[in-house]
Every structure is written in structure tokens, then in C-alpha cells.
Task: structure prediction
Amino acid sequence: MENPIDLETRPDCAVIALHSVTREYTGHAGTVRALDHASFSIVAGEWVAITGPSGSGKSTLVNLIGCLDRPTAGELRIDGEDVAKMSATELDRFRADKIGFIFQQFHLIPYLSALENIMLAQYFHSMTDEKEARAALERVGMGHRAEHLPSELSGGEQQRVCIARALINNPPILLADEPTGNLDAANQKIVAELLQDLHAHGHTIVMVTHDPEMAGLAQRKIALSHGKVFCHPVGGPVVSLRK
Amino acid sequence: MSRLSMGALLRRSLIHRRARSFSALIALTVSAAVVTALLTLYADLDSKLHHEFRTFGANIVVTASDSSKGLPSDAIGTVRTAAGADANAAEFGYAVATTDRGTPVVVAGTDFSAVRTLNSWWKVDAWPSTADPSAALLGQRAAQFVADEHNLQLTFGDRPITLHGTGRLHTGGDEDSRIYVPMQVFTTWTWAKPSVIEVQVPGGEARVESAISRLRQAMPEAKVQPVRQLVEGESRIVDKTHALMYGAVLLIALTVAVSVLATLSASVLERRRDFALMKALGGSHSTLMAMFLLEALILAVGGVVAGFVIGSAAAWTISQLDFHTATLPRLGVMPLVLLLNLLIAAFAALLPVRVLRRLEPAALLKGE
Result:
């Protein structure tokens, strides 16, 4: 459901803005429309939960917001830039600057220590800085495990390292894909608290989740069904894409 | 402080996947070793093969146009000068004498010292001493025509001579039916002159032909003929050996390339998620490909270093066993070995690089 928003209220705050974004995949079986004319905006500092059943288009949406993919049609602006028009190289650079990824399966490089995994994000962004990387680990309560390999860390610890890695280059957007999907209750609580803390410090968080409890922590939810934005918005600030 | 560099990443990655890295390194080492060994041997092949062919005896025969007159008196000196310093030559004179059993036998006068060098392939029990003017060498069959080879009595026309056999000769050819005596004894006894000079010129067909034309110029009154079969055979064998070595190098390179291709492909497939993550963190296609190709390059260079040492040792051993001479390591083959290994690694990396290009980080990181 398209929902034109009042641009006049918060024109400078839309860190993510989709206007009639469509993503289609063409395969042997024909063309599948994974995202169908999606339109919404997310303002800076907002915590948004994206929910929906499997196959609803959540992953497609995350790929687009994460600059890992480009829309087939429509306009997608991130931090004011139209990513649909960027070249692959520009998109790589843009992604390193603007997006911090938090994955369900953590995806830490197995042969690098916790500290080096964070420095890897610095390496692909600009320059490595061990002091900053250690500070990021301290921030998620993992300073004492800096030299440990991922295989020596618990799931919750790996997810905290993953969060520290997402934060290291100060991206305006944190994109969390089922951040607690692989964690037990205790670690889920730790990660939830971390995200709350980050939100309190002004980070914009876009979180895909199946977990109603986690979704409840967000300021608002964007529900997807069959590629359409189904329920939007549920409270929070309102921004229009129209210029 | 920067402690995470491309080099550190590559090193850690190679060590982490040590079994896979080792397997690729082994393949590239094998290729470098075999190519080093073949190229090292190849560099020496001509001289070694020609050296081997020298043991087959003469490849040029100089004969008197009129066998009854024989060759000029200093023919052997002329031949040696014209054929070159590294040529071997031995003169022969032939006559038919009668043994003490009344059996006709071919007696050949020659210089034992020169024949021994020229026909090193002859099987001789004991060579006659050059200092012993009455020593004779009896062919295996000729020995059966005499009553006592230690008291050898021969008659040429009405001129008898007594010699003593020192050993027997086995060649499987006409030589087995002859009795060889010192040239000076032969000429004094039979009054015949040397009529044949056998010459062995080292080198390929071209060198032999060149020697023939010099000999023809120097001795217009004599017939100078190549032992065609041997000269052409030698040339054919050298050419075929070269072709065989090239073929072996290509075959090995191809086999190793397929093996390394499989290893590198498996390596990329194993690490698709790592590469996808790096891409999600902002790594460009070119950076990821550079990382991957650099990894293949490190393995190729490592393979060359280890392969050169092993290959040089193998070449030395083969040379010792087959040619009885040492072949020292040749640094000159290193650039070729390196080039070949880099080509193999580059070829083997083609498919994995395609996999990298088609990487879909979103799906991979989602676990799909």
C-alpha cells in the first residue's frame, strides 16, 4: 500500500526513502516480482522492524536498503543519494560508508580474531585502526575477547562482535537481519539491550525479524506480504518522498 | 596502528586452509619440478645425446678410390686436421691371409689406441698394448680358425708371421671374423697401405655434412661418405627427444592446471560466504579478485621455488644415471618455469574468478 508522506514536516530527516520501488527476478520459470511498488521512508534515528512471512520480500528489501542489489524500477534514496543510478563500484563504496550489517549467522571470518574481524571492515572502508577497533569491542562488552577466534566465542559473543563490526565505520544505518535468530534467550536479551542502547545514542536501525518481542522494541513496523508494503506506518515520524 | 594488511589476510587465509593450500602448492611444485628437470636436461640434451652417439662409432668413412693403391701416406693426419680437433679417426688396411689351419681370414691393420676411442662400443676381453708390436686382437669367429691364438701363425702370400692374441672381440658384425694387428706390422708384412679411415664427428647432421665437405676438399682423391643411417638416425632421435620433452612439458602443465583448477574452484566455493561478507563490507570486485589471484600467485611462486630445487636435483640424478655426467642447476630456466607456473595458476583461476564475479552476497549471507 503506497503511502505518500508529508515532505514538509521532516524533509531533511529521511535517511531511507523508497518511492514505488519494484524488484523483479527473471529466471527459467519466468519473472517473479519480489517487491511491488514499495514506498515508505525511514528517518534518521528511527528504529524500524520489517516483518512478514517467508517469501514476502523481506530479504529483497534488505538487499536493496543494504545496497547489495538495485531496484528494477522506482526510486531508492539512501542518505539523500539515489542508489539505483550508482555504478557497481560506487555502490561498493557507498555501502562501506553508509551501511553497517548485522547478520543472523554473524559471518565472522574464521581465521581472524574478534579484533581483526572488526579491522576487516575498516580495511575495506579506509584504514585499519586497532585502537578504534578495540574501543568498538569494549562498547559491546567484548574487549576481553579481542584476540579470540570466532570458534572460541559463543553465539551471543559472536553477534556482539558482529555488532561492533557494523558500528566501526560510523555508518548512518544499521541493517540487522534477524539479529537474534540464532541466539538463546540470555544472549537475545544482551543483543536487544545493545540495540536499544545504540538506538538511544541516535543510530538508525532497520531490523528484519520474525520475533514479535524484538519487533515490539522498534518504534514502528513495516509489514510485507507478497512483495507489497502491507501495513505502514504504525506511529513514528512521517516523511514524504515528494519534492 | 595497522596490523591487518592484504599480506596478513592472505597469509592467514592460506594457513587456515592449509590442506587445500598444500594440495595446490604440491601440484604447482610438481609442475615446476618436472619443467625444471626437463628444461635443465633439455639445455644439455644436444651435447649429451651427441656424446652418447659417439659411442656408436664412426659416422663418416673415407676410402681410397683405388683400393689396390690405398690412401696417401699421411691420410690420417689430413683427415684429423680437416675433421676437427674433437673428431676421432682410425685407419684400417685389409688383407686376406691364411691361418695355421689353412683357413683364409681377413687381417686388418689398425692403430689400437685410435680404434679403442672410436669404437668404444666394441666388446673386447683385453685390448692389445700399443707397446707390443706382435699383439693381435682376434674376432670371436676368427679365433676358431686358428690352432693356438697365443701363438698365432699367419701367412700372407709366401710371407709368414707369428703373433700372439691378447683378447677376443665381440661385435656381432663383420669384425668378429677378422684378426686385428698393429698397422706398422700390417704394412711391413703385407706391403699394403691403409685403405679406409673411419671418422667420428660429434654434433648433429649439419656438423657432419660440414666435416664431409671439408674432408672432400682436403682429400679429392678419396671417397668420403657419411654413414647415412647413423647421421640421420642421430638427428631424428635428437629431434624426437626434443619434441617428446616439449610434449611432456605441455601434458604436465595441462594436468597440473586441471588439478589446480579443481583446488582453486573448491577453495572459492568453500569461501563464498567469506567473499560475500567482504563484499558486504565494501570490498570491490577488483579487490576480491586481486586477493584471490594474489593467493594463486603466491602458491605459484612457492611452487617454483620448491620445484626448482627438486627439479634441479632430479635433473642431476637423471643425468648421472643415464649420461654419467652431472647436470648443474641452471638459473636460466627459472624465468621459463616461473612463467609457465604463473600461466597455469592464471588459467586455473579463470573459473573461480567467474564464480567470484557472480557472487550474490545477499543470498549467501542469508544462508541460501
In short: The CA atoms of residues 103 and 357 of chain B lie 90 Å apart. Chain B touches chain A at residues 1-5, 9, 12-13, 15-16, 273-274, 276-285, 287, 360-363, 365-367 (CB under 8 Å).
